[in-house]
């Protein structure tokens, strides 16, 4: 019966629309399987202390090694994951893998913490705090070794916002990603504490070209300091950008200048990467 109904409904669509629906269904099925089959790959990008040039952290950025399609970037599948709810198991996998990697690095005498992107949708599911607890327990990573990155969309979701503040109380750090590109709100920024504000690469890309942009970036850095948070500049590709940011008082940066996202194994062999030494 269901099949007959499906067929009847299908006739209301144009054939191309039917194909799109089918393709989407296939993508969803494949993504579901990919999460369990280990097809998700984490690349890590160094986060550098601008004062010392040492790596103090690494952002985990997910890719999908999809059979027959090559290595897909997050832009190709995170949207689908969010729409279908697959972001919950996907994000859980990413969180567990990244925390495991952080412990491995720390066992090797490196202080790097990991930074994980978390979707608002994922944050607002009731099980997220339990998942986080579980992952920290299982891996043995101290909460301070983990940073959760969220975007400004979190401010529109009361449940996600509550979860975020609870997470912060456990000692896990919270970063505001892509600051200035979404629905930026000074009132929210003032009301809800963040440990880190990430300045989006659309700003840093224009640093050398526009005095206006430079002024705005300077203000974001100052604002971050006033709020007691650390600023991380994203998308740094040239020494000139890094110099400018250091002089403007920006503490940390990330970008191709310091390292492109890559698998952890390749990172370990990078002589140009200066790791922060073990504390005390
Ligand atoms: P994001 O968190 O803002 O990550 C920064 C993006 O900028 C990454 O793209 C990174 O590869 C790229 N990038 C870094 N340095 C440079 C540079 O110097 N120049 C340029 N042009 N680009 C640079 P990527 O890996 O494609 O990730 C895109 C977005 O996908 C991320 O933006 C993040 O919002 C999302 N994402 C990645 N992994 C996850 C995940 O595990 N979960 C969720 N929910 N979202 C994720
Ligand atoms: Mg991020
Ligand atoms: Mg960003
Ligand atoms: Mg982004």
TrEMBL record:
State the protein's name.
Answer: Diguanylate cyclase (GGDEF)-like protein
Region forming the signal peptide:
none
Q: Which organism was this protein described from?
A: Umezawaea tangerina
**Where does the EAL domain lie?**
24-275
Highest taxon, organism lineage: Bacteria
């Amino acid at each position: 019966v269901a099949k007959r109904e499906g067929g009847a409904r299908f006739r209301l669509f144009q054939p191309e629309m039917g194909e799109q629906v089918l393709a989407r269904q296939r993508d969803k099925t494949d993504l579901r399987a990919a999460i369990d089959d280990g097809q998700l790959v984490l690349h890590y990008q160094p986060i550098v202390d601008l004062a010392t040039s040492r790596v103090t952290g690494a952002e985990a950025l997910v890719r999908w090694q999809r059979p027959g399609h090559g290595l897909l970037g997050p832009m190709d599948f995170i949207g689908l994951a969010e729409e279908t709810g697959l972001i919950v198991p996907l994000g859980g996998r990413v969180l567990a893998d990244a925390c495991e990697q952080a412990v491995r690095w720390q066992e090797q005498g490196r202080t790097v913490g990991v930074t994980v992107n978390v979707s608002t949708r994922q944050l607002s599911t009731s099980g997220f705090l339990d998942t986080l607890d579980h992952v920290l327990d299982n891996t043995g990573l101290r909460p301070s070794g983990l940073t959760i990155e969220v975007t400004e969309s979190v401010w529109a979701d009361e449940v996600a916002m509550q979860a975020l503040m609870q997470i912060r109380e456990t000692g896990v750090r919270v970063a505001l990603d892509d600051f200035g590109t979404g629905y930026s709100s000074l009132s929210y920024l003032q009301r809800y504490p963040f440990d880190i504000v990430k300045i989006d690469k659309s700003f840093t890309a224009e640093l050398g070209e526009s005095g206006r942009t430079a002024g705005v970036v300077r203000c974001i850095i100052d604002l971050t300091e006033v709020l007691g948070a650390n600023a991380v500049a994203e998308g740094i590709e040239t020494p000139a950008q890094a110099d400018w940011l250091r002089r403007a008082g920006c503490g940390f940066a990330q970008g191709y200048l310091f390292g492109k996202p890559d698998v952890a194994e390749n990172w370990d062999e990078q002589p140009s990467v200066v790791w922060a030494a073990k504390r005390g």
